[in-house]
Each structure stands twice: as structure tokens, then as C-alpha cells.
Amino acid sequence: MSVTPIRVVAAVLEDAAGRILLAQRPEGAHQVGCGSSPAARSRRARRLARPCAELGEEIGIEVQAHRPLIRVRHAYADRTVVLDVHR
Predict the structure, then answer these.
(1) How far does CA 14 lie from the centroid of its chain?
(2) 77 with 1: CB under 8 angstroms?
(3) Domain 6-86 annotated CATH 3.90.79.10
(4) Beta-bridge partners for 11
């Protein structure tokens, strides 16, 4: 198992109707087939400029505003991740 947790900034994207965007993890990805929110690895999860830019690159949106929602630490069998989730 990874000693140093992988830091990830994840986004909860909600539309005016209250629907939340989820994606299915592609072939070759960790936890293939599971649901996922848009996310980006970050060496420093507090630096959000790059993860926000990746949302534009990946799904064509521009982040206007965000706020922290929750921080979650999870240990998989082969790695540990710390998710900084923003809404």
C-alpha cells in the first residue's frame, strides 16, 4: 500500500434541477467501472487553479466559484487517497 496518500481534488457539480454529474471510470483506471465525480490529482490539494483548469479541459466548463465541501481519506487495498471535495 502507498505510504504517502495520493491527494485528489474532486468536484461536486450540480445543475439548477439539483442533478449531480457522475461519470463511470474508464478501462485502465483505478476502480474501473465505478462511479466517479470529476477530479484531478494535486501535489497540493489546496492549490485549486490547476484542478479547476482541468475541469475545463476534461468536460468543457469554467469554474466560476467553489467552496470546500468535505475531506475524505480512504485506504484501498493498494493505495490511500485523500479527497478534497469542492462544490
Answers:
(1) 14
(2) yes
(3) yes
(4) 86
Q: Where are the domains of the chain?
A: 6-86
Contact 73, 80 (CB under 8 A): yes
CA angle 16, 18, 23 (to 5 degrees): 105
Render each residue's pLDDT in the chain as its tens digit; 87 residues: 547 888 888 888 888 898 887 766 667 765 555 555 555 555 554 455 667 777 777 778 888 888 889 999 989 888 898 888 888
| pTM tops 0.90, yes or no | no
Contact 8, 45 (CB under 8 A): yes
C-alpha cell at 29: 483506471
Q: In what order do the strands lie in the sheet with 6-11?
A: 39-41, 6-11, 80-86, 68-75
Q: How many angstroms separate the CA atoms of 4 and 63, rounded?
A: 29
